[in-house]
Design brief:
- By secondary structure, the protein is an alpha+beta fold.
- It has a four-stranded antiparallel beta sheet with strand order 1-2-4-3, sandwiched between helices.
- Helix 2 crosses helix 7 and helix 3 runs antiparallel to helix 8.
- Bound molecules: flavin mononucleotide (FMN).
- Flavin mononucleotide binds next to loops.
- The site of flavin mononucleotide has 12 residues, from loops.
Length: 202
């Protein structure tokens, strides 16, 4: 099966060691961030915020907060993806403005009532983090498209990451940490279940 998009998915891999000395072009980083910005989100709420960390001391501190995974300290840039929490409360201006884009005019009031019910019955932090993972997936594919390597990092101590970067824990959760750069390793062979085990046609 051949297609340009599948080629990107096949080429992306979790890079566990980056070339320390290589920086990345701002234009390439911009493509990755734009892919995140354009990602779909439930209710169109754009649950994410992207912190770009490039200072060596901050990256070293983040590495320590990520169970000392070396790719975090070695990467040219580490994007910390924050998941909004407080903004998602039904009474915030943020929520109302965003919902009004999806449900203009008279559609807003019933949509807001529906959202209130959803909000009351949902683990909002976990939901917001899951939305950010969608953006992260797009960002990793975009990184491959511009010749960058990446590694999704879900192994971190959230409180330590928040302390290092001065993140307000009442407003944000840490969704994912995304080191970007040029890999020092070669890509391992992709290991995936066969399609027949994953897909059922009904
Ligand atoms: C949400 C998430 C969290 C992950 N956390 C880590 C991590 O903390 N450290 C790591 O080395 N890889 C991490 N990975 C990478 C996976 O281990 C990797 O994607 C998987 O083994 C498949 O390999 P591939 O990405 O090279 O195809 C994470 C991936 C995802 C999607």
């Amino acid at each position: 099966m051949n297609h340009q998009i599948l080629d990107l998915f096949r080429r992306r891999f979790a890079c566990h060691s980056f070339q320390r000395e290589r920086t990345i072009a701002q234009a390439d980083l911009d493509v990755v961030l734009e892919a995140g910005r354009l990602s779909p989100s439930s209710f169109g709420l754009e649950h994410w915020k992207f912190l770009v960390v490039s200072k060596a001391t901050d990256k070293a501190a983040l590495q320590a907060a990520c169970f000392d995974q070396p790719q975090v300290g070695e990467a040219a840039v580490v994007v910390v993806i924050l998941a909004k929490t407080a903004d998602l409360h039904p009474d915030t201006a943020y929520l109302k403005t965003h919902l009004a884009r999806e449900y203009p005019g008279e559609a807003l009031a019933p949509a807001l009532a529906n959202y209130r019910g959803f909000f009351a019955n949902t683990d909002i932090r976990a939901w917001s983090v899951s939305q950010c993972h969608i953006a992260a997936a797009n960002m990793m594919t975009a990184a491959t498209a511009v010749g960058l390597d990446s590694c999704a990092i879900g192994g971190f101590l959230a409180d330590r990451v928040k302390a290092i970067l001065g993140i307000d824990g009442d407003r944000y959760e840490i969704a994912l940490i995304l080191p970007l750069g040029y890999c020092a390793d070669t890509a391992p062979e992709k290991q995936r279940l066969p399609m027949a085990e994953l897909v059922e046609y009904h």
